[in-house]
Amino acid sequence: MDIFLQQLINGLVLGSVYALVALGYTMVYGILELINFAHGEITMMGAMVALSVIGALALAAPGLPGVLVLGAGLVVAIPVCVALGLLIERVAYRPLRHAPRLAPLITAIGVSIILQNVAMLIWGKQYLPFPAILPQGRHTLYGASITDVQIAILLLATAIMLLLILMVQKTRLGRAMRATAQSRQVASLMGVDVNRVIAATFAIGSALAAVAGVMVSAYYGLAHYYMGFLLGLKAFSAAVLGGIGNLGGAMLGGLLLGLIESFGAGYIGDLTGGFLGSNYQDVFAFFVLIAVLVFRPSGLLGVRVVERA
Amino acid sequence: MSALLAINRLSVAYGGIHAVRELSLEVAPGEMVCLIGANGAGKTTTLKAVSGLLAPHGGSVHFDGQSITRLPAHEVARRGLTLVPEGRGVFPRMSVAENLMMGAYARRDRAEIARDLDQVYALLPRLTERRAQLAGLLSGGEQQMLALGRAMMARPRLLLLDEPSMGLAPLMVQAVFDIIRRIAAGGVAVLLIEQNAHLALKTCARGYVLENGTVTLSGPAAELSANPAVRQAYLGD
Ligand SMILES: Nc1ncnc2c1ncn2[C@@H]1O[C@H](COP(=O)(O)OP(=O)(O)OP(=O)(O)O)[C@@H](O)[C@H]1O
Ligand SMILES: [Mg+2]
Questions:
Q1: What is the ipTM of this complex?
Q2: Ligand 1, closest atom to CA B210?
C-alpha cells in the first residue's frame, strides 16, 4: 500500500510538471500546426536563469527567506523565457508561415540546438546545483511521504492550469485564440490580429515552461544545459498522448505520463526479475509515444467534433 | 455621389496567373450591388482582395474615401467592411452564441453589443433556439444565417457576401435572401456575389457582370436582366 501511494504521489507531481510543458506544445500546435521543438530548451533556459539568480541571491543575502529567493528566480526567468519564445516565433517561424510544413520543423530543431549550445557557453557543461534554500519539510501520509516542495509543485501547477482554462474559455484573448486555431482567415475577418494572437500563444507557453523548468530543478535539485531535450521529448509525448492541440488532453497526458513513469520505474525491477532497474524510467515516455502513434494517433481526447460543410 | 467602396483597376494574380484584371466597381452608401459571373470568373478573388485576405497586384481599393489597398484583413474589418466568406466560415467548435460574439470582437461598447445581440436573435429566431449548440452541427442554411448574424454584430457599413445561396435548398435560399434584404433595409450597403444571377438581379439595384476577371457589362439590374447577352449566358434563356 505505501509503495503504491508513494508512486502515485511521485507520479502526480512529475506529471503536473510534464503537463505544464505539454501545454506549450499543444497550444502552439493548435494554432499553427507546428511542433515547436525548441520548447524543451525554453524550459531549460527557465531553469538555468532562475538557478543563476537564486544561487547569486543565496550567496549575497543568506538571511533571505527561501520562498522569496525562489520568487525572485521566477520573476527573472519568466520574462526571459517569454522574450525568448517571442523572438523564436518572430525570427524562426513567422517567415516560414507559408512554407511547406517540413521547413519550420527543421528550423525548430535547429533553434533547439542553438539554445543548447548558448546555454553550454553561458553555464558550462557541469550540473548547476539548486541551493538548499527551500523548506525541507517531509510529511507522512498513510505510510508514504510527501515533501513541501512536492506539495508546492502540485498546488502551483493545478492553480496555473485552472487559470489557463479560465483564460481560454472566458476572456477576449482566449476566444481569439480559439477562433484563430479554427480558422486563421476567418478570425482575421472578425478583426483579430492573428499575428498578435500567435505571439501571445508563444508568450503564454514560454511562461509556463519557465515555471515548469524551475519546478523540475527544485524537484531534482539541479539543472543542466541538456535537460530540455529529455524533458521536452517527454512533454511532447504527453501532448500527443492526450491529443495534440487539445488543452485538456495535454493536462491529462502529462499526468498519465508522470504516473506511467513513476509506477513503471517502481515495478520494472519486479517485472523483469531485476534485469532492468528504475534507471530505465525514461524509456516509458517513448513506449507511450510509439504506442499512441500506432494505435490512436489522434490521442486520448483528440477526437474532432464533426465539421459540417 | 461619393462612393462608399471604390475599386479602381484592381488586378490580382496567383503566382503568374491573373485571376482579376483591371476591375473597377463602385458601391454607394446603403446601396445593394451584385457581381455575377460564371465559375472561376474571379468573384471570390475580388472579395478576398478587397477585404485584405489577398494582396492585389495592381490598382486601388478605397473605402469611405480612404485607401485600404494593402491593409491587413483585421484592419479592413475594423473599419466597417465585413466579408461573409464563401462556405460561410463559422467557427465549428464554438457555440452559436460565441460565434456571434466573435463578430463583435473589435468592438468595446458592451451595452450596444448586448442590444445588437438581442436584435440579431430577433431577426434570426432559429439561432435563438440553438444558442448553446456548436456551430459545426448546424445545417448549411442555419450556418449561413449564423454567418450573417455574426457579420451584423460587427455593425458593418458594407457587407460583402460570397454566394450566400450556395448549397441551400430553395426554401432556405428564400429565407436567407429575406434576411439579406432586411439587413440592407437597415441602411447597410451590400456587395453580393452570386452564381444565381436571376436571384441576384432581382434583389439588387445595380449589377456588374464579370468574365475572365474583368467587368464586361454593368448597369441597373433591370437593364441587365433585359440584356440579351445576359439573358442567354446567365438567365438560361
Ligand atoms: N489559391 C489559388 N491559387 C491559384 N489559382 C486560384 C486560387 N484561387 C482561385 N484561383 C483561380 O483564380 C480564378 C478565379 O477564381 P475565383 O475563386 O475568384 O472564382 P469565382 O468567380 O469565385 O468562382 P466560383 O463561382 O466557382 O466560386 C480561377 O481560375 C481559379 O482557378
Ligand atoms: Mg467563388
A1: 0.94
A2: 21
